UniProtKB/TrEMBL annotation, chains A, B:
Subunit structure as annotated in this protein's UniProt entry: Homodimer.
Start and end residues of each Aminoacyl-transfer RNA synthetases class-II family profile domain: 15-359
Family matches, as PROSITE patterns: AA_TRNA_LIGASE_II (PS50862)
Family annotation (NCBIfam families): hisS
Ranges for region Disordered: 435-478
Record has Transmembrane as a keyword: no
InterPro entries assigned: aa-tRNA-synth_II, aa-tRNA-synth_II/BPL/LPL, Anticodon-bd, Anticodon-bd_dom_sf, His-tRNA-ligase, HisRS-like_core, HisRS/HisZ
Origin species: Cellulomonas shaoxiangyii
GO CC annotation terms, alphabetical: cytoplasm
Record has Aminoacyl-tRNA synthetase as a keyword: yes
Protein name per UniProt: Histidine--tRNA ligase
Sites where the protein binds L-histidine: D89, L90, T91, R119, Q133, D137, R290, Y294, Y295
Amino acid sequence: MARPTPLSGFPEWLPDGRLVEQHVLDTLRRTFELHGFAGIETRAVEPLDQLLRKGETSKEVYVLRRLQEDADADADAQDPGRRLGLHFDLTVPFARYVLENAGHLAFPFRRYQIQKVWRGERPQDGRFREFVQADIDVVGAGALPYHYEVELPLVMADALAALRPIGMPAVRILVNNRKVAEGFYRGLGLTDVDAVLRSIDKLDKVGPEVVAELLAAEAGATGAQAEACLALAEVRGDDAGVVDRVRALAAEHGATTDLLEEGLAELGALVAAAAERAPGVVVADLRIARGLDYYTGSVYETVLVGHEELGSICSGGRYDTLASDGATTYPGVGLSIGVSRLVSRLLGAGLVRATRSVPSAVLVAVTSEDRRGRSDAVAAALRARGVPVEVAPSAAKFGKQIRHADRRGIPYVWFVGEDGAEGQSAADQVKDIRSGEQVPADAGTWTPPAEDLWPRVVPSRRADGPVGPSAERPTALA
Amino acid sequence: MARPTPLSGFPEWLPDGRLVEQHVLDTLRRTFELHGFAGIETRAVEPLDQLLRKGETSKEVYVLRRLQEDADADADAQDPGRRLGLHFDLTVPFARYVLENAGHLAFPFRRYQIQKVWRGERPQDGRFREFVQADIDVVGAGALPYHYEVELPLVMADALAALRPIGMPAVRILVNNRKVAEGFYRGLGLTDVDAVLRSIDKLDKVGPEVVAELLAAEAGATGAQAEACLALAEVRGDDAGVVDRVRALAAEHGATTDLLEEGLAELGALVAAAAERAPGVVVADLRIARGLDYYTGSVYETVLVGHEELGSICSGGRYDTLASDGATTYPGVGLSIGVSRLVSRLLGAGLVRATRSVPSAVLVAVTSEDRRGRSDAVAAALRARGVPVEVAPSAAKFGKQIRHADRRGIPYVWFVGEDGAEGQSAADQVKDIRSGEQVPADAGTWTPPAEDLWPRVVPSRRADGPVGPSAERPTALA
């Protein structure tokens, strides 16, 4: 077999990169659990008709076929209700899981879900065909109070803040509200709300003049209506002033409606709570239009400060109908972190690194193959007290065994005491191969310093700011 | 959308079942890391020609196609080097990863890998189309000493022993060695070793008389040769006596060869080490023939005691050529735990349960929606000290809020002190809803007892044996 080459769009990490990804996943999981979210995992596949239910062919679904299935002979294989595809997000499977298990779940149901998803799109920087998402959602049976739309982005703010000590940049969570946009546009007299949103969504790309033309052509807007829509899109801020500015703009254009006022009350509550609980993180940005065509209330996007061109690393919003079985409607609100996009930037930009590439804190040297059992016994004694350890692969010269540890970043090498002439054994010794210091040690009591016990994930560039030992966290399960 | 029904062969768990699975995964991961294995994750797909390289069509590979790909117009779609399939195990992807990254890995390379795999087989009890495997392997560049064939099953014995406290039955790891079998058969004069192995593999199903006929028909064995093969298959034991019995049998039938002696030395070393480090767990069983056609040394299968009909939950062996790039050959030895099979039995047989279905130890009650911010602040203070907590969904009557906690198994409900008439607040109170005991509490200092902090995974049936509190482990990241 010739040396294989990577598949574009299917990222994989070397062991030290995987340590960084695993640390990110552990940190997210722990934060979600501290906030009372229960973890679930769904199968990777869904019936194709469910995946395509909302016309999601733009997601480029991967369809499965068993190799030995005779497609021509099997009419079922062409039936979208029988064909299976890989899920392209965790929302469609979660909605299905809720309907399937509604009788066994207690609502409002808080769940997190961390899994791979697949999209057959053209790979680009930060856009993969296989990637990991970390989602949280709260779903209600029949009703879901607005306060969850305040809570969920703050959970994500907490989760992302927990990654700052390893060298992740600050984040900014941009929020908007469907009711504000729709209430304002309808107040102006524009009834094709989705057409307005599609035009506004192009603002960053084509600029205000072209958007004004689009608003006229696509949504039938007059010059004054287009001007008002563009003025709304300029409103941005992290305090109650945002609500005042929108309200004044609506009054100026005679665009005040009950729906607008409802939306502003919600947006104001979110901004106020965020100012207290995650100052500077949440920003109301009325230009955000992506997702407002399917979300029914709040909508969220998140940028890494200094890496805005990467696109959103955490998005979501409120659905009045996440799922429905006819008898009951299940509204939900949730956000999804693009873990692979985030980790690939952390690694690719050299922001974060692992202190070593293997779990072992100690390599137990082997004096001779006959005495390997003694080295194994030392390793077992250390592991029993929670010290990760491996035994040298061969009874090579000690210099070679030390190089074996050094190449992996293993900080300590353990030497088992030699048998003496009169049946007495010399004491074991342990060497810190960084300093060269070697001291007598007992496998029943010796423990490495806490910072050496497990590989840690730390900022790569000390120049990014002051980083003390408290900023470093162990990467393995404690 | 009508209520969906489960897909046969694609298991999913309710949140309390997922807690059990997550605990199993965390425990395996921790054990693997204590033994110095580095975690990696590979993409879910491999080129179809790689998946089919060893004629593995029996594994019923799932082939992928992008929905919008025009299969007829695209000749590439028919080229097995361009088509992608879902991996059916973690060995093929690991071999590819080693070749692709050989320049960046230090050998011998110890890795663990815990991921889903897919096989389009007919679903049965314990046999799924999508399931999780947990693999460990050591791979060398050019050479790999035998002692790893002793070490790896003992790592798995350690990992599976770490699950005993939650109620998992004991395991028995059955081992055999290709060199023993092949050396013995060749010593007898039987040259079609694979035909002998295929016949012996049917022993449990069809019995010795039919196998004797098969050996004659398929491998050209005489009556005496068949008798010797069947006698070898009867040898079983967990001490050095096994080696003596095989050696005596070979002498009796004139079947002694250098290859047999080499295999017996290996098998003897494994049994001796196991007797010391995991007494009673590892059993040499010369009847094991599955896998001996592709493994080149040791081979392992593992049964759950009392659940033998479930089949092996942890299998593997030694490959002299796990991978090769022409210049270098990479031998390896590894084992794979069928996590889904194991967890589905633990849950299905009611052996194991989680103490609650949500992470939260505390529900903070809400007195009125106006005062939700105070409940949020209490929750934040508790979380900052590592207590998992959620806030009540609505300011319902306290009785209803307590029932909300009770339904989820949340043990504590927190009541925020009311403002007094003169601007003084009464102290907060926390109620253990199991005992009804309610005491004053401060969110800056109160902590629940350790056994209530996180959901725990515990044996379901106390009747299975004496189980003390020390047998119960937290299920979340500490």
